[in-house]
Amino acid sequence: MPLDHAPMPIIDLQARMLVRIAAAIAGADELSTRRVMETATGSVEPALVDEVILQSYLFAGFPRALNAARAWRAVSGEPAPANDAEAGIDQSARWEAKGEATCATVYGSSYEMLRENIRALHPALDAWMITDGYGKVLSRRGLDLKRRELCIVAACAASGQQRQLHSHLHGALNCGATVEEVRGVLDVINDLLPVGAAERYKALLGRVQSARAADRKSDQAD
């Protein structure tokens, strides 16, 4: 469904632009990504786009992140900041502590199980997930965690990473997004997804919602 004819989502204009940029970086070609960025210019704070681009390397890889940064500099005319105090290696102790806290917020009651499962894959992946992923990147102050998670939902959906999408549907809800907002993300990026994918992902969201409701009912019974 073309964006112009999609139902008006509940998320605000700036969030709509950010999730579209996140989806394009993760799943679209360079020309399409540039067009999405051109549409966003003037409707979104440039510093917020920088944050979406920076976090995209976690979900789309460094090449796509570099190409996205290059496209954004050309489209927006905004230069990169002269320095970034949060990026220095001297912040590593802070990254670990913040990463643990942020990851626990995103995963909620599943946090300890996540750590155990990732350590079973490889202890380095667990360490990098916390320090680099959730600490160095997703705990940056430039963008709130709720909108970061909505952008991650968009990136996972656009790249077809359903296992990670399932986790971050929970994550977005754990970080304060409503089911309607998450569904709105899928509406907004529908034209950037394969045909029928948005409906499949909405069905997955419905299963997530049902599972969370069952868990709450169980907790109340206890």
Explain what you see:
The protein is mostly helical and 222 residues long. The protein has a domain at 10-79 and 143-221. The chain is 72% helix and 0% strand. The protein is built from eleven helices and no strands. It starts with 12 loop residues before the first helix and ends with a helix.
Anisotropy-based shape: globular
Strand tally, please? Answer: 0
Binned, the helix content reads over 70%
Strand content: under 5%
Low-pLDDT residue spans:
1-7
Label the structural class. Answer: mainly alpha
Terminal CA distance reads 45 Å
Alpha-carbon Rg, integer: 17 Å
- Quaternary form: single chain
Question: SSE order in H/E notation?
Answer: HHHHHHHHHHH
Mean pLDDT: 93
- Please give the largest β-sheet: none
Tally of individual helices: 11
What's the SSE blueprint?
Blueprint (H helix, E strand, L loop, with lengths): L12 H15 L2 H11 L5 H15 L1 H15 L15 H16 L3 H11 L1 H15 L7 H14 L3 H13 L4 H10 L8 H25 L1
Helix pairs in contact: 1-2, 1-3, 1-8, 2-4, 3-4, 3-8, 5-7, 6-7, 8-9, 8-10, 9-11, 10-11
